Predict the 3D structure of the following.
Amino acid sequence: MERRSTRKCPLRDRHKPIRLTAGAEELNTKGERTRAALLEAGYRLFVTQGYHATSTRDIASAAGLAVGGIYNYFGSKEDIYLELLTQRHALVDILPALQQAQGDTVEELVRDAATRMIAVLRNNHQGLALTFVELAEFKGKHLPQLFKVAYPSFRDFAQRLTKARGTLRALPMPIMLRVFLGMFFSYFVTDLVIGKQLPVSVTQDAFDYFVDIYLHGVVAEG
C-alpha cells in the first residue's frame, strides 16, 4: 500500500484549480480535460518535491478530484509518472527542434539544431528535473521506455548529418549524436549554474565556442 506523504502539497487549494496548458484547454471531453489536469498536477508535484514525496492523494487534490477518481484514468501513480516521462522529458521536448533544424552543411545543421535545442530548454527547463527524479529515485528504471520514444527522431537527425555537406570523422554515429546531446545539454546547464558569474566578455560568445569545439575539438591542428 502506498504511504501517504506527510509533506504539505503546495497546490492543495481546491479554490485554485490546475491551469491547463493551451493544448489541454482545447481537449473536447470532460474526461480528457480531467486526465490532462491529473498529468499537469503530477508533473508540477514530481518536479518540485520528487516522486516518492508525492502521493496519489496530493495529485488528486491538486487536480480538484477525489483520490479514487484517479483510478478512472490511471492504474497507479507510477503510470502517471511514466506517461509524463515519455511526453515531457527534456529529450522528448527537443525532438521537434532536431526535426526542424535546417542546414546544407554539417556546420550549418549542427549550429541550427543546437540553437533550436537551447531555445526549447530555456522555454521549459523543468523537463530536466525529470532526469534527476528518474536517476535519483528510480536508478534509471524507466529510461528504456524513454529511449524507445526518442530514438527514431535521433536516428533521423544522425542520418541527416551524414548526408550534409562536409567530411565527418569515422566515428560511430551513436557516439557522435551522444556527444552532440551531451555538449549542448552541458552548455545549457552550465550557463544556468555559472553563466551569470562570469564576465560578459567570456560568456557572450560561449555558444559559438561550444559549436566550434563540437565540430573541431580543442587541440590545435599541427
Observations:
- The longest helix spans residues 173-194.
- The chain has two domains: 22-86, 89-216.
- The domain at 22-86 is CATH 1.10.10.60 (Arc Repressor Mutant, subunit A).
